[in-house]
Amino acid sequence: MKDATALAAQGSPHGTTVVAERQSAGMGRHGHSWHSEDKGGLYLSIILRIPGIGPFVTLALGLAVQEALQEVAGVSADLRWPNDVMLNERKVAGILVQAVDDALIAGIGINVNQQHFPTDLGEVATSVYLETGQTFHLETVLQRVIVLSLHHCKLPRPDILRKFEECSSYARGKAVEVEGILGVTMGLDKDGFLLMKTAWGMKTVTAGGVRPAK
After folding, report:
1. Whole-model pTM?
2. What's the number of domains the chain is made of?
3. How far apart are CA 111 and CA 113, in angstroms?
4. 196 with 203: CB under 8 angstroms?
5. Among 26, 35, 46, 98, which one has the highest count of C-beta atoms within 10 angstroms of its own C-beta?
6. Which residues contact 80 (CB under 8 A, 6 or more apart)?
7. Same domain, 64 and 40
8. For residue 135, what are the domain limits?
């Protein structure tokens, strides 16, 4: 994302995209690292200049990646609020958005053709190849992700919320745990935050890792 950040600061236009087949310092939310196998995944940063999109951009990008994987690979991915794309309850893609002056940098990492992961990631991460047994042309995936990302980010906020709830098993009626608190998800509020019903009442989740309740 550093290159895209520099380009945004220099005034590069909306839709400018920086692409890599491998990252040497991949980054996720809350400072977590992102595993990157040589030529196995797709890693891109898109400069977005869309007034008013705010936190909804992460939800919109998740929808875009989900749709792209369905189109290109025929897989039905799930969305785990706010920024994870899942296949069979394992993470196949992640999204990280950062603000730079009057732009947003949308970082997207997708595990496409990886054939293995480190032992500590094997139970939580997967790739399109591991789920389908097929390899896919990264350029094809890239093209659809960019087109769909720019499209979904222009949708009205109510449409993004509605589509996310429709396309995510985590958004409503899912027993989850967030930072040690157990509850059942009750949809998204008007600001795109996750609502959760707990033993102590309703809770609005504004950040934190959402995981299935054990």
Report:
1. 0.91
2. 2
3. 6
4. yes
5. 46
6. 86, 91, 168, 170, 210
7. yes
8. 2-167
